[in-house]
Fold each of these.
Amino acid sequence: MTIDALLSHAADGGRISADEALHLYTEAPLHALGHAADAVRRRRYPDNIATYIIDRNINYTNVCVTACKFCAFYRSPKHEEGWTHPLEEILRRCGEAVDLGATQIMLQGGHSPELGIDWYEQTFSAIKSAYPQLVLHSLGASEVVHISRTSSLDYASVITRLKAAGLDSFAGAGAEILVARPRTAIAPLKESGETWLQVMETAHGLGLESTATFMMGTGETNAERIEHLRMIRDVQDRTGGFRSFIPWTYQPENNHLRGRTQATSLEYLRMIAVARLFFDNVSHLQGSWLTTGKDIGQLTLHFGADDLGSVMLEENVVSSAGARHRSNRTELIELIRGAGRIPAQRDTLYNHLVVHTDPVDDPVDPRVHSHFSSTALTLQPV
Ligand code: SF4
């Protein structure tokens, strides 16, 4: 098929192969690629709404034995700068988030050998008991693998116990790039991409949905980028459990991946568009403003994205690696409006909580700003 024919086929809802996606990613004119992706977005979401969520990422520990080369956040066990927050501090931050209008908590942290299933069960139960209105969209496949090791449990048992303790869904963190060659190069001690997908498939089967992420720009080839998408789509065909796909760009500061470069803004926009065309089975596509900046974040809404993710009340992991972008609720609303779309605050399930149809009467709490604390919590846009 010619590029024009491929774009029409995909824009009309036809499935494209991985080879065809790679062809479009590398060869299609940028404008035509974005136009086709936006056509798919418009058909899926004819209300012209683009969403955001208010949540708080709580990084409960920076102690980690997995030592990913791209990570500027972790400290090895016994390192003098290592910390694990006591439950009281985690609850205090949850309460603060509730006061600021957050609907979701993302507990993300290092793989501390001190934390077994009991710690997670007690923490989740305590949060749910104190703040039953908060959705716990937390951890991820990597944490399940780690807990299975520290507590000698199989994946299904870990997932079942986390769910019983209050976990509502898994974040898509830890996916990085699922393809073996680049994954091994950047995270040699992390579980394989196949295991990450196996855990997610198990979770979906046990009733815990998730998101899926992609960290672009650590030295992978274009073909490996598309292969990452294919691996996720194949699982999604079987489970339907991935609610959204969230690509973001690697941040290169303060870590051990010297010499590698970030994905460019154009590469990022092309990835957003191809993801919208390739993932005919994933409902939502999130553009990242945290790692690419607000201008590119806004542009993603013209390349197939329907969501700008979180007004993050706290973020430490990506900012540790050099992400300098900050935003707040008012700015995100204006970014969405500037793209010609209607802003809406969503919940974890993408239900619209507040639709901002009137520019004058936005009930924006001025306290809802990004708080980038040097002492606390979050992993990646998930
Ligand atoms: S990315 Fe996560 S698993 Fe990897 S070193 Fe950092 S905290 Fe540990």
Amino acid sequence: MKIRGKTSGYVLRTVDYGESDRIVSFFTEDRGKLRGIAKGARRSRKRFANALDLFSCSTILFTAGSGDGFALIEGCDVRKNYPGIRGDLEKTLMASYMIELVDLFTVDGKKNLSVFALIEDFLDLFEENDATEALLRFFEFRLLRHSGYEPSLERCVVCGTAVEEISRPTFRPADGGIRCERCAVPEDTTWPLSPGTAKTLLYGRNLEAERLSRVAFSPRSLGESRQVLHGMIRHIVGREIRSLSVLQEVGRICL
Ligand SMILES: [Zn+2]
């Protein structure tokens, strides 16, 4: 049975299709990831205006089956286009990276309001504030958390020793968490993760988004959290993240 629906969604990806159409993936409030075809989207700029730009937030009118199949995108009205992000190359690259991660960590038809709110919070933050590497790290941590992969940083995953009682915790992506010296696996891929870094990441876990800009990382913590979060994301996704490579090449700050 076909249903007509209306929901809000962020544009995750668009691919040209045929002569005049466009295939679009959204992350929507009501249906999670929604993929569909926007007929005539390339021919008529007026009909979809900026509503299909990457990471725009739009109100989407669609017809779809009851499952997670392909939808017909009948209309799209842009709600937020984020001019502050689009006018800044580095912010654009960061937003593109966040959106690619959301695409990789979500599946069609599975609603996840925490992920929806996460995108909204962080795009609003980047629109209004300086783009910082610390904010990206918090985004990665929260996306992992809301997707069921929260890194386990509070205690050793094997013996349960609390992180503050471990002198040299190491993070192992295959565990998704830290180990103490006694439980460490020396032969495997592991990275140091000091208790201070773990504390900073855990502190930002539930903080309101507007307050995250004020959380300071030491250069060491920033380096450690970058290594650990990217390592975990690579481990889950099974490959490098394309937009992260672009960001690292072009970005002013080393990410
Ligand atoms: Zn242990």
